[in-house]
Write a structure and sequence with these properties.
eight-stranded antiparallel barrel, two-stranded antiparallel sheet, 2 helices, globular, Porin, 185 residues, mainly beta
Length: 185
Amino acid sequence: MNTLTKLLFACTLIFSFIACGDDDNSSNKNSLDGSWTAVEFAADVESSSTGVGINIISKTSVTGSDLNYDLVFDGSNWTTEGAYSYDISIELSGQTPITSIESVTDVNGSGTFSVDEDVMTIDGSFFTFMYNGQTIADTNGPQMANYEINSAGQLVFEQNETTEMTTPEISTSTSTVSKSVWERK
């Protein structure tokens, strides 16, 4: 069960900060140029897996803390660097939640991005997640998030999606609500 728990946890975190999309709008992209520092991030993920005689419901909450993490947009490129911690609470099928505080240091990432109105598509992931010293969600490939620069000048990314994955043995449905907030440096 421990391996299954880690696999489900990894899947839920991966879905917490990803999606798909494309296209480009240069006026929106230009307003992003510069350095941003993370001030908050959080995600709630609920996943239900059924098949091969099992039914597992997991609820995961992730909340960022000790944020010393920067995101830089330059033209069509992005880079990240810094460190952060996050509190994790995982509840499997109604059992007592498992809680943990994880820290990620010396994070460096880079890639390209495009925007289409209020949707940003990136290659890769702005965040890296680890559990018990192992990277569990360092996503590659296209990802999409709704974004805005709010009235306070903060860059806000939000996701609210449900994904389905079915194999001959197991079916999984994952619902994700996540948000990260960044301030211009």
